Amino acid sequence: MAGNSSAPGATVTSRVLALLYAFDEHHRRLTLTELAGRAGLALPTAHRLVGELVAGGALVRRPSGEYVVGRRLWDLGMVAPVQSGLRETASPFLNDIHAATRATVHLAVRDGMQALYLDRLSGRASVPVVSTIGSRLPLHATGVGKVLLAHAPDEVRAAVLAHLPRITTYTITEPRRLDQQLEKVRREGYATTVEEMSLGACSIAVPIRAAAGDESVVASVGVVVPNLRRDRARLLAALQVAAQGIGRSLTAPR
Questions:
Q1: Domain named IclR-ED: which ranges (predicted)?
Q2: Are 130 and 144 in contact (CB under 8 A)?
Q3: In what order do the strands lie in the sheet with 114-121?
Q4: Pairing of strands 202-209, 104-111
Q5: Which of 109, 136, 77 is nearest to 250 (CA)?
Q6: Given pLDDT bands bounded at 50, 70 and 90, which one contains residue 129?
Q7: Over the stretch 207-252, which tens digit does the pLDDT of each residue have?
Q8: Does domain 12-70 bear CATH number 1.25.10.10?
Q9: Strand pairing of 104-111 and 114-121?
Q10: CATH of the domain spanning 78-251
Q11: What is the bridge-based pairing of β-strands 202-209 and 217-225?
C-alpha cells in the first residue's frame, strides 16, 4: 500500500499525492481498484479524485480501463532543477558520446537507493536495454548505479548491500564481493557490469563531479554495449572526456 490517506484528518492534497505515489517502476498501469488500495482510499473517493486528475492531464485512462501517469506530470517533473539543469548541460556531451560510440548512452543520478535515469540515447547495436527516461533501476546491477553507489554516503551503501536482489544469473548478490567492486570503482574511476541487469548487455560508466578536485559526485554517465572485451579503453576515454566537460559546464559562470 502506497499510503493510508483514508485516516481521519487526511487532506485532499494528501489523498491526491497518495494516488500519484501509487505509481512506481513496478506499477506503471493501475486499475481504479488497485489505485484505491495502494493509496489507502475508499473506492468512491478514489473514483472522484482520479476523475479530476484525468481531467487535468495528470493521469490518463487507457482503453483497457487502467490508468497511467499523464504527460503533464512528466513535463512538470522535467523542470525540477536536478533534471532540467543537469540534463540540458549534459545533452551536447551525451550526443558526442553517442556519435563516437554508437552505443546506448545513459545519464543518471541517485534517487534514494535507486538510479534515476535523466536521459537516454539509443544505440544502433541490438542490445537489450531496460531503461527509459525517468525510470529507476537498482544501483547494484547497473554501470551508472555502481558509480553512484560507490560514492554514496556510508548509510546508503550499507542499506543497499543489505539487500541485493538477483535480476539475472550474473547479478552480484554477495555483499562482500560488491563492496570490493565499489572500492575498485572509487580507486579506478569507472564501473562495469556484465549481463547483471539484462542478459546480452554490458555497461561501463564514470562519475560526473561538479568541479575539478571536488570529490562529490553529482551524476554518472555510461554506455551499454554487447560486450566490453575489445572497446573498453575507447569507451572509457569517451566517457571520461564527456564527464569532465559536463562537470566544467556545471560550474561555469552563466
A1: 72-252
A2: no
A3: 136-138, 114-121, 104-111, 217-225, 202-209, 191-194
A4: unpaired
A5: 109
A6: confident
A7: 999 765 566 899 999 999 998 988 899 999 999 999 999 998 887 6
A8: no
A9: antiparallel
A10: 3.30.450.40
A11: antiparallel
